[in-house]
Amino acid sequence: MIRRNSGNMRIFRISGLKYLLFFLLITGFYSCSNTTDYKQVQFGICTDVHKDIMHDADARLQTFVNEMNREKVDFTIQLGDFCRPYAYNDTFLGIWNSFEGPRYHVLGNHDMDGGFTERQTMDYLGMKSAYYSFDRNGFHFIVLDGNEKKDPPLEGYPRFIGETQKKWLKDDLRKTRFPVILFSHQSLEDNWGVENQEEIRKILEDENQNSGKRKVLACFNGHSHLDWVEKINDIWYVEVNSMSYFWVGDEAKHINYSEDIDKKYPWIKYTCPYQDPLYEVVTVVGDGTIKIKGSTTKWVGPDPYEAGYRNDLYMDRISSAIAGRILK
Hints:
8 helices
């Protein structure tokens, strides 16, 4: 029984389940199923560690894992170009597995270098599928595989999402009632990313339109070793910088470390390495706001411009940092 005084006393008799529901409504504990009611989720992202290129990849990854354990994030994810499935990389993989929580992988194009198949790399990393989804704290996360082959095949590394995966993506999006975050190695936004990126973006945009709300919030990718954010049709596309370096290639190669290191790790001369590892912690809240806590460091040796590297398409995206951002 609830009594309210408003001049004349009125008495409302509510019993059993009706009383409970009424009580929850007026006290704010009963919530509707919209995005403002979902919990907060926090996760750590690193990408393009390139264990098989960097001499100090183990130390870089250990720094990330230690920080994620201190932060007690809900999960960690690496966005590809992690390591090849050699037995000598077991220690490196063990560092990743020392994170005290759920850990997820995205396949990068270089993870199959050396003649390995996608299946061999997946088995080594403990991946059941190259693309998959999972839920955490009232949010839905989708991992895509951008390494599928096009028919006829593209020149160079495959960077395509085929019909079977597209159908799976549409079904997976339709089934979830949670806000969605996507992860891929190659970008869904830039010219050097997934070749049929416009098709994939349309699938995401159609789901937002069909659901009548901003269901798909953002897509995170690695691959490009750049720090960049772009918003297309109300969906954020976030390029996560490499943990280790920016690739400058033949035109600007130079020795960054000692001659001994260069001899053992000959590919480092084609890079401008970062002094410290770069990674980010992402917090997503119920209203769709995405908070990125980045990291910053210095170059080892000259920066790409000083080394002679030029690319007019994205020189402004090259940085030895991951900027902190709030995306609304």
